[in-house]
């Protein structure tokens, strides 16, 4: 496997989190961060996996970040020195949901 793909993924994750911290104002009582980024082999597409807290506001969080996506994409183009900046797709990181379900099951 090409080692450039994980490097680009980590660079995108760090830069997207910086943009979110610097420019994004989430709804009151909500925390949104990017937990992982995967990049396609041709480096043209990337998927950013979002961690949204609290879990009962996941739908609102996804809607808000979708509206903010254009700003993120534009700033990535300015801040990252790549020939082609990958198109970012947003998805919910479901690992946190699975972990909380397991935790609840263990508590019972």
Explain the overall architecture.
This protein has 108 residues and is of the alpha+beta class. It has one domain (4-107): GMP Synthetase, Chain A, domain 3 (2-Layer Sandwich), CATH 3.30.300.20. Helix content is 51%, strand content 22%. It contains three helices and three strands. The protein has helices at 4-23, 58-79, 95-107, and strands at 31-39, 45-53, 87-92. It has a three-stranded mixed sheet. A hairpin with a 5-residue loop joins strand 1 and strand 2. Helix 1 (4-23) packs across helix 2. The termini are far apart.
Identify the strand order in the major beta sheet.
1-2-3
- The helix tally amounts to 3
Parts with pLDDT < 50 across at least 5 consecutive residues: none
Distance between the termini: 43 Å
DSSP strand count: 3
Helix content: 40-55%
CATH architecture: 2-Layer Sandwich
What value does the Rg take, in angstroms?
15 Å
Could you name the CATH topology? Answer: GMP Synthetase, Chain A, domain 3
- Kindly give the count of domains: 1
Principal-axis shape = globular
CATH superfamily: K homology (KH) domain
User: What is the typical, i.e. mean, pLDDT?
Assistant: 87
Structural class: alpha+beta
Broad CATH class: Alpha Beta
**Main beta-sheet strand count, sense and barrel state:** 3 strands, mixed
Strand content bin: 15-25%
Strand/helix succession: HEEHEH
Protein name: Ribosome-binding factor A
Subcellular location: Cytoplasm
GO cellular component, one term: cytosol
GO molecular function: ribosomal small subunit binding
């Amino acid at each position: 496997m090409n080692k450039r793909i994980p490097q680009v993924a980590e660079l995108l994750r760090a830069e997207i989190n910086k943009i979110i911290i610097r420019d994004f104002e989430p709804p009151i009582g909500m925390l949104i961060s990017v937990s992982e980024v995967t990049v396609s082999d041709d480096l043209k597409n990337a998927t950013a996996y979002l961690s949204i807290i609290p879990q009962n506001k996941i739908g609102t969080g996804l809607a808000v970040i979708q509206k903010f996506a254009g700003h993120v994409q534009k700033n990535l183009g300015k801040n990252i020195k790549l020939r082609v900046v990958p198109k970012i797709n947003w998805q919910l990181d479901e690992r946190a949901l699975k972990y909380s379900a397991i935790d609840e099951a263990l508590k019972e």
